From TrEMBL:
<feature type="domain" description="Allantoicase">
    <location>
        <begin position="25"/>
        <end position="176"/>
    </location>
</feature>
<dbReference type="InterPro" id="IPR005164">
    <property type="entry name" value="Allantoicase"/>
</dbReference>
<feature type="compositionally biased region" description="Low complexity">
    <location>
        <begin position="348"/>
        <end position="377"/>
    </location>
</feature>
<dbReference type="Pfam" id="PF03561">
    <property type="entry name" value="Allantoicase"/>
</dbReference>
<protein>
    <recommendedName>
        <fullName>Probable allantoicase</fullName>
        <ecNumber>3.5.3.4</ecNumber>
    </recommendedName>
</protein>
<dbReference type="GO" id="GO:0006144">
    <property type="term" value="P:purine nucleobase metabolic process"/>
</dbReference>
<dbReference type="GO" id="GO:0004037">
    <property type="term" value="F:allantoicase activity"/>
</dbReference>
<keyword id="KW-0659">Purine metabolism</keyword>
<dbReference type="InterPro" id="IPR008979">
    <property type="entry name" value="Galactose-bd-like_sf"/>
</dbReference>
<dbReference type="InterPro" id="IPR015908">
    <property type="entry name" value="Allantoicase_dom"/>
</dbReference>
<dbReference type="GO" id="GO:0000256">
    <property type="term" value="P:allantoin catabolic process"/>
</dbReference>
<keyword id="KW-0378">Hydrolase</keyword>
<comment type="pathway">
    <text>Nitrogen metabolism; (S)-allantoin degradation; (S)-ureidoglycolate from allantoate (aminidohydrolase route): step 1/1.</text>
</comment>
<feature type="domain" description="Allantoicase">
    <location>
        <begin position="197"/>
        <end position="338"/>
    </location>
</feature>
<comment type="similarity">
    <text>Belongs to the allantoicase family.</text>
</comment>
<feature type="region of interest" description="Disordered">
    <location>
        <begin position="346"/>
        <end position="377"/>
    </location>
</feature>
């Protein structure tokens, strides 16, 4: 198995969330052709692998989406390209794209384009698509990062490859749209969850895994699906800083050590701050203790309500989880009452409405109606 990787460019992933990731519910819905490899691979983690000499009925096994050869041949659809429609796991404003042709060397597309749509239900022949990325050249076995400028909230993307070929992964980076209409008045919301825009910003150590895993939906599936540090051999402790997706009060905290049995932290504490500073790791950031240093146990959810020391009206933008001395935790939930007006819920992206709809446009000239192309329904 060849798993050599080109240097991964994290310019987009360092600042935004992959709205299309399989981990947050992103999925491929349909495509024009997946003869060699299924389009469902586009949303999987990693950059894909290559198994030299591993052949299946259709040919060399490929870890990505690959259509059959069509250049110089007549297509039944009459199109000059292949396409794939995908649903974002998290609706949001798109800030960048990563089209990765890793391991596709003699079978990569010459160029790609991306369209977007915003629909509350299913994509069909009446769906109106808008051009997000114009036809752009691509290279074999390479990661292609594209900055995009679009303020509306989108729910679906359509990847077009010209004329055919294979793409290993598609990442759609942006800012999640937390819809206040989905919550009743007074309902507690997980302020830190990735679905609401929470992000792991920094940590003392990520030797085994990233603190961003702490904010993923559902419980962890194994130890790799959490945040784990290497073994300490000094008197210090490990820590991770999380930017809350929603500004709000902290009324309940859940810390889960699922799957961590011989390597869970002995103790933890939780701090919080309200700050707009970018240098959130600076020594002069004023942190408030939310939960004092507390004993932890293996492979279980720890629920904290009474131990929370901050007033109910206090609002925060970041939390810092401290673990003593080291180890791994699976999930961190920070339940509270969001300040919707102060939080970056991207309401402007939906034209001031709390409903997802298809009325927002990138620009009038980019509109593409799928009704003229039944193959894309």
């Amino acid at each position: 198995m060849q798993n050599e990787q080109q240097p991964h460019d994290d310019r987009l992933s360092a600042h935004y969330i992959d709205l299309l990731s399989e981990r947050v519910g992103g999925k491929a819905l349909a495509c024009s052709d997946e003869w060699f490899a299924p389009c469902s691979n586009l949303v999987k983690p990693g950059r894909g692998i290559f198994k030299a000499g591993h052949f299946v009925d259709t040919g060399q096994w490929m870890d990505g989406w690959e259509s059959r050869r069509s250049y110089g041949r007549q297509r039944p659809s009459g199109l000059d390209h292949d396409w794939c429609i995908l649903k974002l796991g998290i609706p949001g404003v798109i800030r960048g794209l990563d089209v990765d042709t890793n391991h596709f060397r003699g079978n990569a597309p010459q160029s790609v384009s991306v369209d977007v749509a915003c629909v509350a239900g299913d994509v069909d022949a009446t769906t109106v698509w808008h051009e997000l990325l114009p036809n752009s050249a691509t290279q074999p076995h390479a990661q292609h990062l594209f900055d995009v400028h679009s303020e509306p909230v989108w729910t679906h993307v359509r990847l077009n490859i010209f004329p055919d070929g294979g793409v290993a992964r598609l990442r759609v980076y942006g800012e999640p749209w937390a819809n206040p209409a989905n919550y009743v008045e007074g309902e507690l919301v997980d302020l830190a969850c990735v679905i609401n825009g929470g992000r792991g910003l920094a940590c003392s150590d990520r030797f085994y895994s990233s603190p961003s895993n702490l904010l993923m939906p559902n419980r962890g599936i194994n130890m790799g699906d959490g945040w784990e540090t290497k073994r300490r051999r000094d008197d210090n402790n490990d820590w991770a800083i999380v930017k809350l997706g929603l500004i709000g009060s902290i009324r309940k905290v859940v810390l889960d050590t699922a799957h961590f049995k011989g390597n869970y932290p002995d103790r933890f504490s939780l701090w919080a701050t309200a700050s707009t500073r970018e240098d959130i790791e600076a020594d002069d950031i004023a942190w408030t203790e939310v939960i004092a240093e507390t004993k932890l146990y293996a492979d279980q959810e720890h629920v904290f309500i009474q131990p929370i020391q901050v007033p109910a009206e206090a609002e925060f933008t970041h939390v810092k989880v401290n673990i003593f001395p080291d180890g791994g935790i699976s999930r961190l939930r920070v339940w509270g009452t969001p300040n919707w007006s102060a939080s970056n819920t991207i309401l402007s992206g939906s034209n001031g409405s709390s409903e997802v709809n298809g009325s927002s446009e990138v620009n009038d000239s980019s509109e593409v109606n799928a009704s003229s192309d039944p193959e894309r329904g």
